[in-house]
Amino acid sequence: MCPGLSAALCLVLIPMVPIVIADITGILNEAVRLEGISCSNMVDVWFLGKDNKTKTHVVYSDISGKSHVHSPYTTLIELLGNGSFTLGPLSREHEGCYMFECNGSPMVYENLRVVDPVGNVSVVQVSDGLYCNFTGYSVSVSWFTNKQPVTDGSRMRDGNRTLAVPLNETSAEYECQVTDAMNRTHRSPEVRTQDPERHHWALLGAAVVTLLILVFCVCKIRKPVEDNAGTSPALPAPERGYPLN
After folding, report:
1. Predicted TM-score of the model (pTM)
2. What is the pLDDT of residue 202?
3. In this structure, is residue 31 part of a structural domain?
4. Which is it for strands 191-192 and 173-179: parallel, antiparallel or unpaired?
5. Distance, CA of 19 to CA of 25 (rounded, Å)
6. Residue with the larger pLDDT of the pair 22 and 13
């Protein structure tokens, strides 16, 4: 149904003819294709907005090949035939319901949603595994380990954005893949998980180094104290003067 309209209101607006209602997602600052209709004579496309309070003529075409793109769409639309066209670059103002009429009768309603592009895809290590971090709107998220897809769905949660890593797993390379609204994939840089055994020895080595530094510091502090404990403080030399009577 058209954005912002109740089901009852949509039924009032749509006459009793075969109707197609489609949802389309486009990406901000990119172009999207809106599919037209086969019509015996004349196709008109109208933009109804998000709340159906506007009706802006977008495109006119007829069977003879005559067509016209109305302002303010003249620089944004490329006609493809049968009323189909690409619209872009998209802005938030293009969101809403597009009505395709055949010979004056509504036939198709296409609801366009404009979303942010996917970007900044990266893998972040968290306390319970790995997290696929990104900006924008995604259709799906998937994971790869050592170039192979992760197929165990029980390891994933939060819409597949969080992946559990087995505690006994040796070092491995992970990356996440994000699919956007145009079905394009965006992959993160690879992240290598820490080998548990190597991590254990690294912690042990750091602890030993810290202990040695503490012992050295304690010895440096104790040595001057011990030296001072075996030496009497020097008495000042008597001053010269005349004897008292």
Report:
1. 0.69
2. 41
3. yes
4. antiparallel
5. 20
6. 22
